[in-house]
Amino acid sequence: MLRAWLCLGCALAVLAAGANDTGSCATSQPDAPCDANATASNHTDVAASADTTDVPLNTTPAFSTTTESPLDTVATAPSPPPPVRGEICFCDLTAGVCDVNCCCDGDCSSEDRRVFSSCKDAEPEPRDDHRCPRPLTLYRDNAPQLFCVVAENLPRTFQYPDRQTVKSSSEFSKLHGLTRSFGWPAVEAESELPLFEPPFTYRDGGIVWISKDSELLPLSVPVGVTHAACQTTRQVLYLRDWSSSCTRAVPAEDCGSAGGLGTAGYHEGVGVVAAPHLVNATLLPDVRQVCMQNVCVPVTPYLCADVSDAADCSKHDNISVPIRDEDSGSCMNIVRKVRYVLTHNGTQGIVHVGAYFSLTDIPVSQRFVTQTFSVSFRWDREGEAAHRRSGRRGYIAGRPLLLGRKVACPSPDGPEEEIEVVEFEDSNRWLTIPRAMPDGKCDSKERQAVTFLVNRRSQCVLPLSIANFSSEDACQSAQKQLLHLMIGSALDNVTDEKSFNQHVGAFGDSNVEVLGEWTQIVLDSVPSLSTRSSGQDKTLVCHDIVTNMQIDVLVSYVGNVLHPQAKVIGVLMKLGGPKLVVFECVLPDCTNVSFSDHSTMVTSSVMFTDITRHAIAYFAEPPVVNIRLPNDFFYPFVSSAVRAETNSCSCIIFVMIFSLSFVE
């Protein structure tokens, strides 16, 4: 009897499917063309989740419909909901300040979110072929995939197992022999230049406008296109940080005759349009009338030793112009770095603009100077506690690796006790390697950050300065200069591998108070400063000189397969084998000689290796069904005397009797 019912149900399902079959069609838009004989009743709607990645706030979402005429009403996107405390917001990458377009950021107020141009997902969209596609898609019964998972009730499915951090070089070598992969960040497309048509409000990605020489122009900075020379300019986009470098020629006769070498062109006579929505369009094109309405902010100049550290900067209204010093034969007060810092308040516009300059003196014979330009935005209420993260939690490709050192601090429980925490070395807080300047020489002031999943190899020439050519310590002095360039002061007082106090964050937001979220850099060997020197007359031969360094990073993805988090589980720093370096002096006096003409090549390389384990499937425990029947359920077939003993098997007897009734 049961078999007959099943056959009848299958036959009805086949007949129903055949009656509705008119062809195949799949579309993600309600108005998309399809078979002329097909009607909307032939479609089966498969609903997907409504959350999407980077949904514009001012667009109209497409809704599916089963009627033949489109809807006449226009639906508007709802305002982003307030963030839920306690949940991880993956796009919240800046602590203590509102992240642009991150609607789940708890630091963003309702007024801040008005300036957003879109909303990033609080959680990345899962990439699973078994889940229903997004956005909503219509299918016919002969489409490639008829069934998909809309929601699942398993709290944990496939998980990447966690790994312990590497503690020794032997353990590192054991895990290192796995596949390697390269990853490159996507190139962001440039937006078209809009016209200045007030009133409008500054929004993320919009052009920042300035008034200069009685004209309204986009704020722009020099940039190179086909080679290192400064060839053109790039517009500054609102809330988009950016930096670049290019080379500019220095005239030998007049250092100040070339544009861009002095500070005047970057701030004098420049007023940034702070609030375009306050500009009276009737006053255009008279720019002077526009800026008289308190909608233009002047650019305040600052003179710095290093533009990246605001503490070394001071306000200067009259910065010296470039000039040639005949006595020293050099061009003085040449602009080396320019950094614009625009302080904003969301939709209310820009409240302050600072131009930070770093100057340098160059010999006239050098003829070229490399200039660095950067633009950064900060909130008006942003404090000292704000800092950039490299991920939330796991690292993001292209973000720098966190670097710190372990220190002992007084415990909150009492001054007698101490706790170990991680302290950042400087304001940059990143693992770095030597950086080459456009002329091939090693930059002694700036270093290049090691970015996640970016394999890198760089070479530069280090000019060595030796105090006394004939001294026995000449080679030891050269070795110290090379090691300081490659590793810095971290090797000072290091006697063995374990005393190398350099730690890398396991995650992009590693907590400095949790040592388990940091992994110590494993030093392959401690370099020796006891080098040998030999040679005769004006030839110096240095033995056992180290000129190259390699950093290997082990990476593993942990957590849910749909949302894996990248974790750094080991970093190995290996110094190259010792080599022989020969220096020759052709001067009459070989004391205090700088070997700038000799090619002392320093090589640094970084390699990332993915050692992620295979995912393990976790299943929920099957439910336990407890069925208890009344004591007199089988009365009068079972007497009351044995009712208690047979109650445990009463459910099984009932199921067997019920099943036998359907057997033919």
Task: Describe this entry's structure for a reader.
The chain is mainly beta and 664 residues long. It folds into four domains: 128 residues, no CATH class; 171 residues, no CATH class; 220 residues, no CATH class; 40 residues, no CATH class. The chain is built from seven helices and 36 strands. The strands form ten sheets. Strands 7, 8, 11, 12, 13, 14, 15, 16, 17 and 18 form a ten-stranded mixed beta sheet that branches. Strands 6, 24, 28, 31, 32, 35 and 36 form a seven-stranded mixed beta sheet that branches. Strands 21-20-26-27 form a four-stranded antiparallel beta sheet, with no helix packed on it. Strand 29 and strand 30 form a beta hairpin. The N and C termini lie close together (6 Å).
**Helix run count:** 7
Question: How much helicity do the residues have?
Answer: under 10%
Average pLDDT works out at 75
Uncertain runs with pLDDT below 50, 5 residues or more? Answer: 1-78, 139-143
Strand percentage lies at: 25-35%
> Span from first to last CA?
6 Å
The overall strand count is 36
Total discrete domains: 4
What would you report as the Rg, rounded to the nearest angstrom? Answer: 34 Å
Write the layout of secondary structure elements.
Elements: H1 2-20, E1 44-46, E2 55-56, E3 94-95, E4 118-119, E5 137-139, E6 158-160, H2 169-176, E7 209-212, E8 215-218, E9 220-223, E10 232-235, E11 242-249, H3 264-267, E12 271-273, H4 287-291, E13 296-304, E14 313-315, E15 323-325, E16 330-344, E17 350-363, E18 368-379, E19 387-388, E20 403-411, E21 414-424, E22 432-436, E23 442-449, E24 456-461, E25 464-468, H5 474-486, E26 503-505, E27 518-520, E28 522-523, E29 533-534, E30 539-545, E31 548-560, E32 565-575, E33 579-584, E34 591-595, E35 601-610, E36 616-617, H6 643-646, H7 650-660
Parallel strand pairs: 13-17, 16-18, 28-32, 31-35
Antiparallel strand pairs: 1-5, 2-4, 3-19, 6-31, 6-36, 7-8, 7-12, 9-10, 11-18, 12-13, 13-14, 15-16, 16-17, 20-21, 20-26, 22-23, 24-35, 25-34, 26-27, 29-30, 30-33, 31-32
